Amino acid sequence: MKDSQTTMYDHSEIKVRLLDTYIQKYLNILSRAPHISKVHLYDLFCGEGIYENGGEGSPIIFLKAIKNVFYRNQHQGQKTIPVDCVFNDIKTSKTEKLKRIIEEKKLHYPSFGDLRFRNINYTEAIPKVIRQISRLKNEKAFVFIDPYGYKEVRASHIKSILDTKRAEVLLFLPTQFMFRFERKGAPEALLTFIEDLVPKGMWPNSHTGIDFIENLKSIFREYLGEDHFVDTFIITREKNQYFCLFFFTSHIYGFDKMLEAKWELDAEEGRGHSIVQPEALPLFSDPSIKINNKLESFLLEFLEEPRTNGEIYKAILHLGFKPKHAVDVLKTLYSSSRISVTPIGRIKIKKGAFYINYSEFSENPNKVSIQLK
Ligand SMILES: C[S@@+](CC[C@H](N)C(=O)[O-])C[C@H]1O[C@@H](n2cnc3c(N)ncnc32)[C@H](O)[C@@H]1O
């Protein structure tokens, strides 16, 4: 058995840290949303829970987050909502070990929601999961797909899950192996995966592992269309070895929160996490400068036409930046008189305010028009 299957390595640790940061935010928000009555978590390649070196896997992260949010809400007199979990792994021995750990560590009580264990092949489980999610009313689902490889996973699965409009997906892909194969002449599994996304022969060449991830992200974005959001979190294992978490949602607020989680873990570029120590940064280097430069060039082009606050919010998220980043750049452009901010209709606006956030997007997406002077 490969060592990576029984020992939790750093890259897996970073993977579960992102999962942890996100799932806490996700459960917090949903448990307080007035119209949501239940959450369903599906961990379709769940593993055994705790590795031989003590590293915690995804089911433990999920259960700890559920427990935390439950008790916090209870303590604060807030409503609590049930979170139903399905932990699936093709190997019964893994879910049996997981069950024992959950009992020993008292990680679950019935008041938190249902807890189910399954030992179904992912390929058979996925249509069932999609059917269950599409029947949900006032309920939401989160699907975590964390295979060793990628041969079972198809882009069309992700699309069907998103089309239900009730779920978000986090998918881990061993992109470094996919990239290596691409260079050597793609094997059947990679071709099958790619052909779902682009017509034969249209897959762009990638020069590096990072290029491969960027290409895959753009192609996913095109394949899924404007209404669905895609972003990546790159995990660097060794020099030039890149693995990647893909996050998909049809809900813009869910995406906003995912970007927050990602930027929390990587304040510099929000792109991913490096295990190898980065080379010493030059003195006085300010990470925000890099973000601002990228965003500024985008906004300078985007604002050649007048854009509403809602349009800017959506465009910024599609690029993988937080609304706050856009506001910082707009402030600079505004203070050097390079943009104008005009109210739409007869409303009063505050000087120097841009209204780029989720609540304005959902309630007043056409409040102001912003344009280059
Ligand atoms: C990368 S590990 C999952 C790690 C886990 N998510 C964690 O954070 O600890 C992949 C798991 O998928 C299981 N598996 C492999 N092929 C599968 C399949 N076709 N369907 C369901 N589970 C499968 C393996 O037994 C293994 O436990």
TrEMBL record:
<protein>
    <submittedName>
        <fullName>Three-Cys-motif partner protein</fullName>
    </submittedName>
</protein>
<dbReference type="InterPro" id="IPR031009">
    <property type="entry name" value="Tcm_partner"/>
</dbReference>
